[in-house]
């Protein structure tokens, strides 16, 4: 998570009711982390009360498509962006 959060770049493209987030890096070690993290996050926390996530491999990293379930959820999603959304919620609670 550290490599992705600190050393990856994110490009955003709007989707109907959501965002497409392409997470990438030129560094092979960071790309390896990118290939694991969004897919695992989408599988673990991808279908919530306010959004759905789907991850797929993309050039240089991963693509994460996130769709919101309401207009308010879409505003929250766009405000959080990739990094805020990855940290949002209690999925890391012990």
Characterise the protein shown here.
The protein has helices spanning 2-7, 28-45, 71-87; strands at 9-15, 18-24, 51-58, 61-68. With 94 residues, the chain is an alpha+beta fold. It has one domain (2-87): 2-Layer Sandwich (Gyrase A, domain 2), CATH 3.30.1360. A four-stranded antiparallel sheet has the order 1-2-4-3. A hairpin with a 2-residue loop joins strand 3 (51-58) and strand 4 (61-68). The mean pLDDT is 87.
Sum up the structure in keywords.
single chain, 94 residues, alpha+beta, Gyrase A, domain 2, 4 strands, 32% strand, globular
Shape: globular
Portion of residues in beta strands equals: 25-35%
Structural class: alpha+beta
The DSSP helix count reads: 3
* Ends apart, CA distance between termini: 17 Å
> Helix fraction?
40-55%
How would you summarize what this structure contains?
Helix content is 44%, strand content 32%. The protein has three helices and four strands.
Task: Record the SSE blueprint.
Blueprint: H1 2-7, E1 9-15, E2 18-24, H2 28-45, E3 51-58, E4 61-68, H3 71-87
Antiparallel strand pairs: 1-2, 2-4, 3-4
């Amino acid at each position: 998570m550290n490599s992705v959060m600190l050393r990856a770049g994110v490009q955003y493209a709007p989707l109907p009711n959501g965002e497409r987030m392409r997470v990438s890096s030129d560094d092979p070690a960071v790309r390896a982390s990118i290939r694991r993290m969004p897919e695992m996050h989408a599988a673990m926390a991808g279908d919530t009360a306010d959004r759905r996530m789907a991850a797929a491999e993309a050039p240089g990293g991963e693509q994460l498509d996130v769709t919101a379930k309401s207009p308010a959820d879409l505003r929250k999603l766009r405000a959080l962006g990739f990094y805020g959304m990855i940290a949002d919620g209690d999925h890391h609670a012990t």
